[in-house]
Design brief:
By secondary structure, this protein is mainly beta. 7% of the residues lie in helices and 37% in strands.
Length: 495
């Protein structure tokens, strides 16, 4: 396929970027270091050089047959930590790296059938060219790829352990080693009237749909992940520390579970399921470790998790059991139940709080400074941040898609509510956008005093719907809006 015909074929993909006319900036080109085609996607190495060292390259993947077929987008890691603003020395192996996943298996393609598009960035390093209304050929760099390999890398530490589920309205891939979701597709989504399936989860390592727990008390010396506090996650540890030396990124950082059942059958190597996935109890690894808290995994890693995932046609339910197997209470622990790292296109959200519907559009970032709580639509310092009554949130892709939307609901057993800490923000949800990797992070984030499992075991549920809160679906409770299904689930689970 000629370059001209290819550009015509994908013109529709970029139509949604042309939303307004304004003065366009000059562009900084991409330093492309190479890529490798893997069995599930493409490993890429590139940056914007010294002109924009803190901006991760935006990449898109297409398969080229009789027509050009968009496969996915990813953002490469920049050279600076997204939160602390310090060099990511402990994560040096991930700088300038990224991984784009394909919607179709690589083995269905032939060499030179994959096109990699790397987008240039504006001279002030704040916007990708398409965000500056520049979609002309000079705004990006295209490469035809032919290096096919069976090896895996990076976030695909999990690709050999992913369980695929596909239902009429959605599909996802879940890691057997820990239970985190790394890919989630709304199969109802369209762009320009055509099906356009988009992984909603940001591809940066460690970002997933998952649960996590943290104590926020910094106690680690020389922490390899620059946090320094206890932070067990379903995606595992970002680095390791043997007590004297910190390592870089661990490509095999996910925990090893005790057993996996797919559709009720014990199968620790299952790759697909239709009715249920059960992840056996296992110790959760902390995101960070230090000289005085070596790891991954040590006797201090006392949080254990088991999980049952039940997909139905219109939603997926995730039931979790969480234990503190230590001898003492984890005081003032925050549990993210769940956390969803969205791609940056999901900038509109809706909740019902204080009895009223509240909708907010998160503005596009214009620099590396963090968005304010007002821009994010929350007020972390005010009493109205204590949203005990909030039990669901909808996020929507605003880049010209139709029906690329998700509603997330969460539920607690009463034995958890009894231990929720009594201070401002005890029932809180948070929305953040990382400075450089551009993920929109949502987490429902209540705080509680987590008692030892000898005293109490905690159970939670969250549910993901590929629908808006007000869309009508069929369910065991009848045909009704998603919000009313949630109300019925809440009554059944919490009472």
């Amino acid at each position: 396929m000629s370059s001209l015909n290819f550009r015509r074929a994908v013109a529709l993909v970029f139509a949604f970027f042309a939303t307004c006319a304004f003065a366009q900036q000059s562009l900084v080109g991409v330093n492309y270091f190479g890529s490798a085609v893997r069995s599930t996607g493409v490993q890429i190495s590139a940056n914007y050089g010294s002109a924009c060292p803190q901006k991760g390259v935006s990449a898109q993947i297409y398969s080229i047959g009789s027509t050009a077929d968009y496969q996915g987008q990813c953002f490469l890691n920049a050279a600076w930590d997204t939160v602390l603003g310090t060099p990511t020395n402990s994560l040096s192996s991930t700088i300038n790296q990224g991984y784009c996943h394909m919607r179709i298996p690589i083995d269905q393609l032939s060499p030179n059938q994959i096109l990699l598009r790397l987008w240039k960035v504006t001279a002030d390093c704040t916007k990708y060219a398409y965000e500056d209304n520049q979609t002309q050929a000079s705004a990006y760099q295209d490469y035809l790829l032919s290096d096919f390999s069976a090896a895996e890398w990076y976030y695909p530490k999990t690709t050999n352990s992913l369980v695929t589920v596909s239902k009429p309205t959605y599909a996802f891939k879940l890691d057997r080693n820990g239970g985190a979701f790394y890919e989630f597709y709304n199969l109802r989504a369209t762009l320009g009237g055509n099906s356009f399936f988009n992984n909603a989860i940001h591809p940066h390592s460690g970002e997933a749909l998952q649960i996590a727990l943290r104590t926020d008390t910094v106690f680690m010396t020389n922490p390899c992940g620059n946090q320094g506090f206890f932070n067990p996650t379903q995606t595992g540890n970002t680095c390791s520390h043997n007590g004297t030396t910190a390592s870089g990124y661990n490509t095999g950082s996910g925990p090893t579970v005790t057993f996996v059942k797919c559709d009720g059958t014990l199968n620790n190597s299952c790759s697909s399921a239709s009715s249920s996935i059960e992840i056996g109890e296992h110790a959760m690894r902390s995101f960070d470790y230090g000289a005085n808290y070596p790891g991954p995994l040590n006797p201090g890693d006392v949080v254990k998790l088991s999980q049952v995932v039940t997909p139905s046609n219109n939603y997926v339910e995730v039931d979790l059991t969480v234990k503190n197997t230590g001898a003492t209470t984890l005081t003032n622990a925050a549990i993210e139940i769940p956390t969803f790292y969205f791609k940056p296109d999901f900038r509109r959200y809706t909740v019902r709080r204080a009895g009223a519907i509240y909708q907010h559009d998160i503005p596009d970032k214009t620099g590396t400074a963090s968005l304010t709580v007002s821009q994010l639509g929350i007020d972390e310092g005010a009493s109205d941040f204590r949203h005990e009554d909030v039990s669901w949130i909808s996020f929507e892709n605003v880049r010209g898609y139709s029906n690329d939307v998700y509603t997330i609901a969460w539920f607690y057993k009463n034995n958890f509510r009894a231990d929720v800490a009594t201070f401002a923000g005890n029932y809180a949800y948070q929305i953040l956008e990382s400075a450089y990797f551009r993920s929109i992070k949502f987490n429902n984030n209540p705080r509680f005093n987590m008692r030892p499992s000898s005293e109490k075991v905690y159970t939670f549920k969250y549910v993901v719907f590929p629908y808006r809160y007000d869309e009508v679906i069929s369910s065991p409770y009848g045909t009704m809006s998603v919000e009313n299904v949630i109300l019925n689930m809440k009554a059944a689970y919490e009472n």
